[in-house]
Task: inverse folding
């Protein structure tokens, strides 16, 4: 079992819909990183958080340390949000970074 | 954007040939990483460096070696390329200073071994 699990693996939605991508981890972490990768593109940092909630434009990331769970939300989704979203957990025990396998999001116009 | 470049950006090579990929940063970050990204696997750590001449293996290090003789450069070498090493390779840097854990990624190198 992977230490970092993302769901769903794939998500297709209509433009304007509210999107939620989930990330669960099984061990103690010191921080969680959300990344975005457009098709054929590089990897861009969206958020790094260790508690609470962060917001940037239409993107919101939350983390619940007790439940070992983080979510990435996109409000008023747009076709340009179509990308792979990756969560990465920074482990307490050895400072290593473990990546989820990503969620492929496709927003239809 | 963090100042990270990778070269080459694309390479096609034959099985058995040596290949070196270069990662260059202008941020003076201590930590540098090499990952490979393959469908169904996500990002997997090959090797990382925590300072000049200080490197360690990741989860998929077999067939790869690295060197870091300067803070700004981290080289990944495939001594004898195999088809299983066809992948997209990403370099990343991390500061770990001032409570920061954030990683910044280079643009990637697409390597095809024929």
Result:
């Amino acid at each position: 079992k992977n230490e970092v699990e993302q769901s769903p693996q794939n998500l297709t939605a209509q433009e304007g819909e509210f999107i939620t991508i989930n990330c669960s981890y099984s061990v103690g972490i010191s921080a969680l990183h959300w990344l975005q990768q457009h098709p054929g593109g590089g990897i861009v940092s969206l958020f790094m958080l260790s508690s609470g909630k962060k917001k940037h434009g239409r993107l919101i990331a939350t983390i619940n340390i007790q439940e070992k769970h983080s979510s990435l939300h996109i409000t008023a989704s747009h076709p340009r949000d179509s990308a792979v979203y990756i969560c990465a957990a920074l482990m307490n025990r050895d400072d290593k970074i473990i990546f989820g396998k990503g969620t492929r999001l496709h927003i239809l116009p | 954007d963090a100042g990270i470049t990778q070269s080459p950006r694309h390479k096609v090579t034959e099985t058995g040939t040596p290949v070196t990929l270069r990662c260059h940063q202008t941020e003076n970050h201590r930590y540098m990483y090499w990952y490979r990204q393959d469908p169904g696997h996500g990002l997997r750590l090959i090797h990382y460096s925590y300072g000049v001449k200080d490197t360690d293996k990741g989860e998929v290090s077999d067939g790869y070696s690295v060197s870091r003789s300067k803070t700004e450069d981290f080289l990944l070498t495939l001594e004898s390329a195999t088809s299983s090493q066809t992948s997209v390779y990403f370099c990343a840097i991390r500061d770990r200073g001032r409570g920061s854990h954030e990683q910044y990624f280079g643009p990637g190198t697409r390597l095809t071994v024929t």
Remarks:
- Chain A touches chain B through 18 residues (CB under 8 Å).
- The mean pLDDT of chain A is 93.
- The first strand of chain A starts at residue 4 and ends at 7.
- The two ends of chain A are 36 Å apart (CA to CA).
